[in-house]
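REQUEST FORM: STRUCTURE PREDICTION
Request ID: SP-0412
Submitted by: Lab K.M.
Chain count: 1
Length (residues): 526
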Amino acid sequence: MCGVDLPEVFCFSSFVICPIVDGRYKAVHMEEIIMKPKNRRPWNWFVLVVVLSVTIGCSQVMETEPVIATPIATPSTAPLDATALPTNSPAADLTPTPASIGTLTAKEIVVRRFRNNTSFVELQKEDGVEVQEEDRITVENKGRGELRFLDDLVVEIFHDSELHISEAALDPQGFILVRLQQVFGTTRAELNKEANARIQLETEYATIKSLNTADSDVDFVVCQAKPVTCMVTLSGEVEVEALGEVVTVGAGEASYVFPGEPPSPAICADMAETEEWVEMYRNGEEVIPLGKIVAGWPQEPCPDESQVALPSSELMVNIPEGQFEIGDVAEDEFHSPVEQIMLDSFWIDIYEVTNAGYQNFLGETGRVSPAGWPGGVLPAGQENYPIKGVTWDDAFAYCSWEHKRLPAEAEWEVAARGPGPEPALYPWGSDPGADGQVFDLPRTDTHEVGSATFNVSPYGVYDMAGNVWEWVGEPYGPIPDGDYILRGGRHGLLKDMAFRQPAVANDMRFVPFAGFRCAADLVEGE
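STATUS: Completed
RESULT:
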C-alpha cells in the first residue's frame, strides 16, 4: 500500500499517511490503494479492514479533541496524548488552560512562548499565539516580539530578552492588571490615556509601575542587564521602587538602580538619544547598552519649564490654534493626502534665518561655517540674504541656541497656506506664476529676505516659496527611516506649499540650497 511490505499507517478520514524516505510521510487516498489494478492483490482487502479500523479509531479521537496536523515524529495508532507530542507542537497546548486576555506576536524571529516548562511554540514572523499567566517568553538573535492585552496595553520585547507573565487579570469592571518579570533584556511598554489598565515590571533590582493614564499616554523603556536596571519615561509618569524607596519618573526623565541601592533620583533624559537608541536596537544594530547611556547622562533634574528662557516675539508672527487642512488632493510620492488636523497656537519667524544672524550664532558657539560661504567667510553685501548650505543638524542647533525650535512640518505648511478649507497651494494664491511675478525672481541665486513683496502668506510670513529649501522638524506623513523633510523649493526650482522633499540630514544634493526658519510655542511676555 505504501510501497513497503509492512506499512505504518496513520488515518485521516479518506486518506492514509505513509512513511517515505528520511522519516517523512505522504498522504495516499484510499481510492489509489483499492482501485488501481496494480494494487488488486488478495492482501489488499485485509489492509482495507485494518485501515478502516484505524479510521474508526481516528474518528473517535477527533470527536474528543481537535487534531492539528503537524510533522509526526514517531508513527503510532494510539489515541493522541498531548503530553507525548513534540514540545514545539501547537497541539501540546490542547490541555485546558485559563482564559487568556493577551496575545504574543513575532515581529521578527526568533520568538518563543514556553508553557508549564514542558512545551513551547516557536513563532514565525507575524504569527500570533495567546498567552496566559505563568507563560515564559524568550526573544533571541535579532527577534522582536509584541505582547498585546486587549489593545489597551502593548509591550514591545526586544532581542536578547526574557519575560515571565506573573499576572494578567481582567476584573469585572474591565480593569486590566499585568505583572511581568523581566529576567533580562529590554522592553517598551505603552498605554494610551483611554486605557483602563496598569502594568508592573519586576526586574532583579527594582519594580516599575505605570501611574494614572487619564491625563496622557504612558510610554516607557526598561532595561535589565547586570549590574543595572534602567528606565526612561517617554510620556506619562512611572514609579520606580527599590529597597522600600520610591521615585516618580515623569516624561523626559530617567532613573536607574544598582544592586543593593535605592533608585537614583529622576534625571533629565536625552530624548533624542533614547529614540535613536530604540530605533537602532529595534533594527538589530550594534549599540551601547542603554543602562550605560542612562548612567552617563548628567545627574541633574530637568529644568523647571517656568524658568526656561523664552525667545523674543520680535520678527515672529503668532498662528492661532485651530483646525487646518494640509496635504493635496493630487496625492503622489511627494504629496500626502488631504487631512484635517488640530494645531495648538505657535509662533514662527516672519523671515528665513539670515547670514548675519547665523554669523552671530557661529561667533558664540564656534560651529563650522556653512558650505554656502566661500572660504568660510560671509559674502560681503549678503548679510540680509538667507543662510544656505546648512544641514538639518545645523538648523536644529541654531534654533535651540535662539531658545526656539524647528517648525513641525504641519505648522510650516499652515503658516504658508493659511486657514480655512481648501487653502491655496501657494502663499499668494492658486496661480503658480503669481501673475508672472515668479519669473522676476532670481533663478541662479537667492534674494534678500522679504524683498519679494508678493511672496507672503495669509499670515504675513515671507519667502516660503523658493529662495532656499527650508528644513522642518516633526513630519506629518511617512518618510524613509533616517530622513528629514525639506519644504518650499529653492531659487529656480519653486515648489507648491504641500510638496514634501525627504532627504538625509547632510544630503549634498540639497544642503547647498538649504536654509530654515524657527518656531516657538511661547515667547516673552506671554
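NOTES: Helices lie at 30-34, 42-64, 271-282, 290-296, 355-365, 392-401, 409-417.
Reviewed by: T.R.
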